[in-house]
Write a structure and sequence with these properties.
Elements lengths: L13 H14 L2 H58 L19
Amino acid sequence: MCLPGQPPAAPATAGEALSAISAGLDYLNAADVASLTSAEQAPGIDQINKALMQLDETTQQNSALVEENAATAKTLEHQSSEMSERVSIFNVDQAEASPPPAVRAA
């Protein structure tokens, strides 16, 4: 231990260093430790909050895209059904249908 106004002496052994560290920690009260810890953790917590907000935004965008794709699929299904009804009036005899002409190489 040092007297007020004097610099602390360098510890000679690891045990003395540990004692000096322990005495320094005893000096800090619980509120100081909590304040320091929370100040150190604040940037990390802020980054986590930003990442969670980005994940939430992306999830909402994906949900909107899924709903849009489902609506498009229903529209295509409806259009396909209408097209099938419209072309059903044509009767083509498969035996009379001729294959398309072959393309010859030049």
